[in-house]
Design goal:
Helices cover 37% and strands 10% of the residues. The chain is α/β, with parallel strands linked by helices. β6, α9 and β7 form a beta-alpha-beta unit. α3 packs parallel to α4 and α7 (132-142) runs parallel beside α8. The N and C termini lie far apart (34 Å).
Length: 207
Amino acid sequence: MPSISHFKIYQPAEPCNLTGEKLRETMDRIVQERLSENGREFDIKGFCIGSNGMEIFADDERLAKVKRLNLGGNRIGDKGAKILAESVTFSKLQWLELGGNDIGAEGITALANAKTVLGKLKTINLYRNCLKDEGAKIFASENKLVKLEDIDLAQNEIGDEGLLALADSKAFPNLVAIYMDNNFTSEEARDEARYGVNFKKLQSMNL
């Protein structure tokens, strides 16, 4: 990863609110500073790029080789998740960090159905978002990312209905690990979920 010693970290709210030429200049600088030399890793955790920044990155050919993308804490929201899901720029992704991005039901719908763009994805981290039961049930019923092996859904306000929907889902044929700690589930539901068709085959599970 290139050195960022001369890169000034922006105020947390600033990049999210930028538009126009200043936005483009800022995103260009972030790519120059944070894209790995081989173009396969792009780590911008905590930069607060917002959905505006995602629009810029979605058209940036320099990111076309990225396999590991860390977008944690960037406030991209549902709009940014949709942009990501529709951008062929990210079609080589295998590992995706989206923790702390205010993603809800609309965002997970877009991501779960992004078979063309995210079809190679093996790991997705969605902890500390706001999927709730609705988003969890959508993920359970609509997921097209069949290569997923590792999913983190901790701290998403998911209740018993969402947990059991995921436990009984048949849309994750290659899943080996799921993490759902610090949600709103009951002990009874967690015990039941362990025997669901989707969960009982897993090698690692934290409910």
